[in-house]
Design goal:
23% strand, elongated, 717 residues, 30% helix, alpha/beta, six-stranded antiparallel sheet, six-stranded mixed sheet
Length: 717
């Protein structure tokens, strides 16, 4: 019955997009749907990018539904699949949904579909098996019905029959071309169990009368396969009459059908053909079908072909040697970005804006980009609308724009201004000092550079955006200088700050000194940014007689949480996080949300000695992803207290894809949440005890966040 309601809804589809950009956006959505569900799009010889590119000028120039349909069919024609096509005819509403049994005539009972309401249809379906029992020879007149598969769900046949199942592509998260990353994402073929019909004690001999406008029920194929029933057609009929395709909504008067799966018989064959093509219509066809049913003698269908399945994964082409691709491929970039995030980004519901509108806005911007840099910036700006700090965009052009050479200063956004945390360039040691405030950059306030850079940065939270801004605020071309005006207690001064690519290595890690040490005789301190897994046991041995450990997570760790958390856990096997991953399958609706796979992650169990003291974790906006996931584990393990300021709010096993022009785009492949389902993405870890450094404290050489942690552990507040 769900199929009936869906088809009735599609009959009232929205009006056709009128502007060229709206038509391109609609086509981009269709193109992506085909890319991820069509079973033949990855077959050798099919260039799906080129098919779209060739159609773009004709789609833009279309003056009528016929023009638009012709352009779409030219694109879809690259698939060589008659089940995937566009017709200039809206899906008409069929009110014939009530199964009606006619009195037997000359030993043959005829079942027809009559007009009625949905409650009548449900009532007729529920009692149908009992009413048709022992009817003997039965002709089901299903001509012209697209709703037949939802109405004819079983057939009482004399012997058990096994028919076809379906083979379809399934994507568990986004598997990138290099199969790299920590997410374990994959694309594969899913072959369902073969459809079955049990032997019925009160059996019939069914003959299904169809035509080229009928959707053939799967149970008819099962009965046909074992010879217990027959399918006869008024006219030539192909595999697209079987339930292998989906109607894609949103094209107004155009009816767009896309194959989503292949028929898959137990013997490894595929395809479909009727037992008989009558070449008759109307009552003549019905009488011929009745005669065939009465005789019980019908020919077997022609042999089915064997099919070799192509790769399930769709590998995106990178076009690295074309930094400024043609207009058509720049449009494809907008379409590709939209499609990957639409189907695979689990945080799509958190955007807070209409992703379809973003596509519509950026198609013309990419199409009209005047040079390579303008195009690459448009890609970066489109991705910025995903609001995921993992959604980084990189290319040679973008790296040049951002500046490949860093200044030898670490900045942090404090009290709405850039403040110097560290000076790593030895040539600046006498001119710039920790705690200095950046007032002007090349004569302009820092807000100017921030305003110029921020539109091209995807940031989960405001603190994440400012962390990115501080890291690149003074960057520029190698071997250049930037004029920076600093303010301190002594007043303002202008300094010529050199840029050097080598400075990036000097800025990481954030801290120096012993990786772990005693902060006080009873409080241990460990820098999780620098601690390695090989050092974990030594650390716990050193701290075994302490009352507490301060874990400094103001940075990015080295995978140590899976060794540390088990030794903090107050009970084994606690769930520390819940993961959600998008599943893209043939069952998805083209305009609806994806299916989701959910799984829980437990803290590993250890046989090593447990640490029973208190733990606190220092956090700020330099913590992202694994840093935040470590926080989930430590908080779950023993209630670790967070001290500092909110983290970036981006977690979820990064994956990536390429856009035309050699542009690499990363993004989060998993939605990671607290064990109770609370949101982490776009929130971050929030401190139990808030504290931020101050310019005055930095000037005095103090670590005010660390000091507050020691105070809390010593005084309990």
């Amino acid at each position: 019955m769900r199929r009936i309601l869906v088809l009735l809804a599609l009959a009232a589809s929205a009006c056709l997009a009128q502007t060229p950009d709206e038509r391109l956006a609609a086509t981009a959505r269709l193109w992506n749907y085909v890319k991820y569900v069509h079973p033949r799009v990855t077959a050798p010889g099919i260039d799906w990018d080129a098919a779209f590119a060739k159609a773009i000028p004709k789609i833009s120039a279309a003056k009528s539904d016929d023009d638009f349909a012709a352009a779409l069919n030219e694109m879809l024609g690259a698939l060589h699949d008659p089940a995937t096509r566009v017709t200039v005819a809206a899906l008409s509403q069929d009110s014939r949904i009530v199964l009606t049994i006619k009195p037997a005539e000359n030993g043959v009972t005829v079942v027809t579909l009559e007009a009625g309401e949905v409650p009548q249809a449900i009532q007729a379906m529920n009692g149908f098996a009992a009413r048709i029992a022992n009817a003997g020879n039965v002709v089901f007149d299903l001509r012209g019905s697209l709703l037949a598969p939802g109405l004819i769900r079983t057939l009482p046949v004399a012997r058990a029959c096994e028919g076809p199942s379906y083979a379809s592509r399934e994507h568990s998260g986004y598997a990138n071309a290099g199969n790299s990353g920590s997410g374990g994402y994959s694309s594969s073929w899913k072959i369902g169990d073969a459809a079955q019909l049990p032997a019925a004690s009160q059996a019939i001999r069914p003959v299904l009368l169809v035509n080229s406008k009928t959707a053939v029920p799967q149970v008819a194929l099962v009965a046909q396969q074992c010879g217990a029933g027959a399918i006869v057609s008024e006219d030539a009929i192909t595999e697209d009459a079987v339930d292998v395709a989906q109607v894609v909504p949103g094209f107004g008067k155009l009816r767009v059908k896309v194959r989503t799966r292949e028929l898959w018989y137990p013997d490894g064959t595929t395809g479909f053909s009727p037992n008989v093509v009558l070449d008759k219509t109307g009552d003549d066809a019905l009488r011929a079908a009745m005669e065939l049913a009465r005789s019980g003698n019908w020919p077997v269908p022609k042999d089915r072909p064997r099919r070799t399945l192509p790769p399930a994964i769709f590998t995106e082409k990178n076009y690295i040697g074309q930094p400024y691709p043609s207009m058509e491929y720049r449009v494809i970039a907008a379409a590709r970005v939209w499609g990957v995030f639409h189907y695979f980004h689990p945080y799509l519901p958190l955007y807070g804006e209409d992703w379809d509108k973003v596509l519509l806005d950026f198609i013309p911007r990419m199409a009209r980009a005047e040079d390579a840099l303008q195009y690459h910036l448009a890609v970066a700006e489109m991705v910025a609308h995903t609001h995921d700090s993992h959604s980084s965009v990189s290319s040679r052009e973008l790296n040049d724009f951002r500046g490949r050479a860093a200044a030898g200063l670490e900045l942090q956004w404090i009290d709405n201004q850039p403040v110097v945390l560290r000076v790593v360039d030895p040539t600046l040691k006498d001119a710039v000092h920790p705690g200095d405030i950046v007032k002007r950059i090349d004569g302009a306030p820092p807000s100017k550079a921030i305003g110029e850079l921020s539109p091209f940065v995807s940031a989960s939270t405001p603190q994440s955006l400012m962390n990115t801004m501080m890291r690149g605020l003074l960057s520029g071309p190698p071997d250049t200088v930037v004029s920076v005006t600093f303010a301190s207690a002594a007043g303002e001064r202008e300094v010529q700050v050199p840029r050097n690519p080598a400075n990036a290595r000097l800025l990481s890690p954030y801290r120096s000194g012993d990786v772990f040490r005693l902060a006080t005789p009873k409080i241990g301190y460990v820098d999780l940014e620098r601690l390695t897994t090989a050092q974990v046991d030594e650390m716990f041995e050193k701290f075994k007689n302490t009352d507490a450990i301060i874990m400094d997570m103001r940075g990015y760790p080295q995978g140590t949480a899976w060794s540390i958390a088990p030794r903090l856990a107050n009970q084994p096997g606690k769930i520390d996080a819940v993961f959600r991953r998008n599943l893209v399958t043939a069952e998805i609706n083209p305009d609806r949300a994806n299916q989701v796979m959910l799984f829980e992650q437990p803290i590993p169990v250890t046989t090593k000695p447990l640490y029973s003291g208190k733990t606190v974790m220092l956090i700020d906006e330099r913590a992202i992803s694994q840093s935040e996931h470590s926080g989930l584990m430590y908080k779950t393990a023993n209630g670790t207290v967070f001290i500092g300021s909110p983290t970036q709010g981006a977690n979820g096993d990064v994956t990536w894809f390429m856009a035309p022009g050699g542009i690499r785009i990363n993004f989060s492949g998993h939605d990671v949440r607290w064990p109770d389902g609370r949101q982490l993405q776009r929130v971050g870890l929030t401190p139990d005890i808030p504290v931020r450094p101050t310019p005055e404290g930095i000037r005095a050489g103090r670590d005010e966040v660390l000091e507050r942690a020691i105070e809390y552990l010593e005084k309990g507040r």
